[in-house]
What we know:
Layout: H1 4-30, H2 37-48, H3 62-82, E1 91-95, H4 101-108, E2 113-118, H5 124-130, E3 135-138, E4 150-155, H6 165-177, E5 179-190, E6 195-196, E7 203-204, H7 207-213, E8 217-219, E9 223-225, E10 228-235
Parallel strand pairs: 1-2, 1-4, 2-3, 4-5
Antiparallel strand pairs: 5-10, 6-7, 8-10, 9-10
Amino acid sequence: xxxxxxxxxxxxxxxxxxxxxxxxxxxxxxxxxxxxxxxxxxxxxxxxxxxxxxxxxxxxxxxxxxxxxxxxxxxxxxxxxxxxxxxxxxxxxxxxxxxxxxxxxxxxxxxxxxxxxxxxxxxxxxxxxxxxxxxxxxxxxxxxxxxxxxxxxxxxxxxxxxxxxxxxxxxxxxxxxxxxxxxxxxxxxxxxxxxxxxxxxxxxxxxxxxxxxxxxxxxxxxxxxxxxxxxxxxxx
Length: 236
C-alpha cells in the first residue's frame, strides 16, 4: 500500500521536473543574470556542500548525478590508462577541483603529488580533511598565473564555465606554459559546435578553439564523456 506522504512527494517531484525546471530555464534564457564566477560557485558550494549535484546538473536528482559521475570516473580512469598515465609517477594539477571527485580518483589509484585549484576555497577545509597530503589553492586560472610544472593537468567540465573569451585564452596559455615537457593535458570539450547556453555560466566551444590555443600540439581521438568528449593533449 502506497503511503499518502510518498504519493505527495512523488507528485511534487514530477511537478518540479515537468513544470518548474523548464520554467526556471526559460527565465534564465529571457532574463540572463550576469555571471560572477567566484560568487556563483561559492554560493553553489555553500548550498550543496560535497553533494555531487552542487557541481553537476542541479536540475537532476542527487542519485542521477552520482550515477553519471560514477560512469565518468570509469571513463576517465580508462582514458588515463589508455594513454599510459601512471598516477603514482606524475604530479597532477586539477583545475577546478570542486568537491575533489577526481582528486579521490587520483588518490585511489596511487597518486600522491596533487594540487587542486579552484576559484573559491569554500570546500577547502573539508577537502584537506578528506585528502591529507594533497594541496589546495584558491586561484582563477583565467586571470592568475600558475606556478611550477606538472606532468598531468586535468580540466574536467570546467572550460565551459570560462565564458569570457580573453579569460579562456589566458587559461589555455597558462596551462600550456606550465605543462611539463612530456606532460599530458586532459580536457573536456563540448561535442557540438560553439553556442551560448541559455544559462549565463556556460558556453560551449568545439575542439577547434582548444587546438588554436595549443597550435602544434597532438590531440588524441575524442572519448565520449557524457555530453562532452575527453581529449588528451601533448607536445608533438
